[in-house]
Each structure stands twice: as C-alpha cells, then as structure tokens.
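Hi,

Apologies if this is the wrong queue. I'm a grad student, and the batch job for OSBL5 protein from Ploceus nigricollis produced an output file that my downstream script rejects. I'm not sure whether the problem is my script or the file. Here is the sequence I used:
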Amino acid sequence: DGEVHINELKNGSTEMFWNPTSEVRRQRLKRHIVLFEEQTDFESERLWQHVTSAINKGDQHKATQEKFVLEEEQRNAARERRESGTEWKPLLFRHDAGTNEWRYKYEDLRPWDPLNDIAQFEKDGILQTMERHLSTRMSNHKATCINNQITRHKRSAKDCRRRKTSDQPSNHSQNTESSCSTPESVQELSDDDGKYLGFESLCAQCGKEMNHLKEIHSAVLSLQKAQQDIHR
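Support response: The file is valid. Your script probably expects a header line. Output copied below for reference.
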C-alpha cells in the first residue's frame, strides 16, 4: 500500500511504478495477527524480529548478519538431529512425496461460500471455518432421521389402507368419515427451524445441535454488530 519507484542507475532517472490511491488503501484486506508477546519462539515475526528491525532501519549489513545467525542455528539443529537419529515431525505440515513439497495439514481448498460460511479463524495454528448451516455429519444424521420417519409414515398408511379393505363397511358407513385419515404427501415435507411438517420432530441429538448452532450464530451476529460500531 505504498509507493513503488523504478530507479534507472545509468542515467539516475526515477519513474513512478505504483502509487496506490486512498480508494485502493481502503479496499486492502484487513490483517489479523497473533500478539507478539503471545507468539512462540519459532513463529516468523518473533524468529525474524532482528532481521526485520535491521531492514526497517536500512542496515543491510546488520540484516545479513542476523539472517546468517538464524540459518546457522537451523543447520546446527538439523545436524544434531541427524547424528542422534531424531526424526523431525512438523505439527502443521506434511511432506507430499509425489510433488516433494511440504503442505499444510489442514488446508481447505474449497471456494468461499458467502451464503453458508460466516468467518474463518485460526486456533492453535489450525485454520477453521464457521458455517451457518449444519455440518455434513449432522446433515447426514438429520436425513437418516427423516427417512426413518418417512418409512414409518408409509408403513402406517399401508396398514390403514389394509384395515379399510378388510373392514367391508356398510352403505351407511361408507358415507361417514373414515377412522383412518389419508396420509399427507411426501412432497409436502418442508424444513422450518428444524421442524418437519407431517412428521415427528427431530431426534434429541439433532435438536440439541440445532439449538447449539443457533446460539453460535446469534453470538457471531452480536460480534459483527460490535465490530461495525467500533469501526464507526
């Protein structure tokens, strides 16, 4: 978000390459980082603090020295592990033998869903996404509950029709209302806050999860409102 110039050493001329406007600066992504005092020794900002400080002061010689010290410590640590036969086990990365590259263990490469994804956050180095809807596990469980209820509903309707056929009602009783009501069409099934019309309510686990997700969603909305107030 700063100016970038191209300096021509041969003739000493300077050309503006990039000059972000105030509109560009307003649209930049907000950066959220862990507080410096809460970082561990091997997190980049803390590990490279002396190199960064030297660069900011324009002291290239000091920055090079500090960088050499860090790299030498890493080489010595690798040498000691190799000599002692200690295997290095990264907490957050795994080695991909196919591409010979290190990959983040908890990477989520699916596109962002603005209708379902609420926020993405980091906890203990693990990136997680808070979603507005039920997780896949709960969705599958809910679908199983509904299918079981549909099966019971159809079985009840079949028993009802069988009783109607075997009763052989008289002419008088044919004009009266049947004691077994006609089952509702499965197509009329609708989802409204976890209640399914024409069927029994969700099982206890589904209901508990629904209430829990509603509480989380309410808390997120409250936080968003507080952030908007702070921004204003």
